[in-house]
Amino acid sequence: MNLKQLAGEKAVEFVADGMDIGLGTGSTVYWTIRKLGEMVREGFRVRGVATSRSTEGVAAEFGVPLISLADIDELALTIDGADEIDPQLNLIKGGGGALLREKMVAEASRRLIIVADESKLVPRLGAFPLPVEIVMFGWERTAARLENMGVRPARRMAGDTTLVTDNGNYILDCSCGEITDPGQLAHDVKTLTGVVDVGLFVNLAEFAIVAGGSEVRVVERAS
Ligand code: 5RP
Predict the structure, then answer these.
(1) Nearest CA to ligand 1 atom 5
(2) Is 131 in the pocket of ligand 1 (CB under 6 A)?
(3) Which letter, b or e, does each residue of 1-22 get, where b requires 16 or more Cβ atoms within 10 Å of its Cβ?
(4) What is the pLDDT of residues 113-165, one digit of tens each?
(5) How far apart are CA 211 and CA 64, in angstroms?
(6) Which of 27, 139, 146, 180 has its CA 20 to 30 A from that of 128?
């Protein structure tokens, strides 16, 4: 079986009837949403807050009812993918360009559950370029300031044009090398004027459901 499917489908075991949950973005959580759609058709009650327009489309395709963040005080949990996962379950996210909504929805949730294949597990974050969402205005200047911090930013493209996020912003994919202190880097990048958010998710994930070989296992934070 496809590893992403194995991890994505396993995650529905943590969703109880009647829950409001966050629906992440990407090709792993796709399988979670697809499975939830099957359950909804059999009478299971769940409502999701989508973290991207793309996820809104997947939820509509499979018949998972959507609500907005404004409709809830708190979500029971969010299920989302990741681009890198370190042993403390700090994450790089935003490969699909949805990092801002993903972080807002994760922060509105009691639990964040990550679904991934085992290629996402790394001893240290940083091989995957760190996505940083920035406002369009003066983007060259924001990129230069990031470069002064010691990272190498590249504007994310969609074919010949600059990719524009669901929030009307740009993304800079920043090659950082090994990230020794994710919390500090997240703070330093986020406090630059012009930066909207950074794809470092520190101390947010409770556990990860990781598929490798023909197995799927729960990975908890290393002590
Ligand atoms: C989107 C994300 C995704 O969760 C991340 O890119 C993982 O995606 P996939 O499950 O397709 O490997 O952060 O912004």
Answers:
(1) 82
(2) no
(3) eebbbbbbbbbbebbeeeebbb
(4) 999 999 999 999 999 999 999 999 999 999 999 999 999 999 999 999 999 99
(5) 24
(6) 139
CA-CA distance, 38 to 111, in Å (whole number)?
A: 23
How remote is the CA of residue 160 from the centroid of ligand 1, in Å? Answer: 22
151: helix, strand or coil: coil
Question: Model's pTM, two decimal places?
Answer: 0.98
28 lines ligand 1 (CB under 6 A): yes
Give the integer Cα–Cα distance in Å for 132 and 112. Answer: 21
Cβ of 82 less than 6 Å from ligand 1: yes
Cα(98) to ligand 1 centroid in Å equals: 8
User: Is there a contact between 45 and 20 (Cβ–Cβ < 8 Å)?
Assistant: no
Q: Taking Cα atoms as reference points, which of 36, 108, 98, 106 lies closest to residue 70?
A: 108
Tokens matching residue 144: 């230069």
- Residue 9 annotated as catalytic: no
Helix (H, G, I), strand (E, B) or coil at 185: helix
- In short, whether 133's Cβ falls inside 6 Å of ligand 1 is no
Model pLDDT for residues 14-28, shown as the tens digit of each residue:
999 999 999 999 999
Separation between Cα atoms, residue 130 and residue 93, nearest integer Å? 8
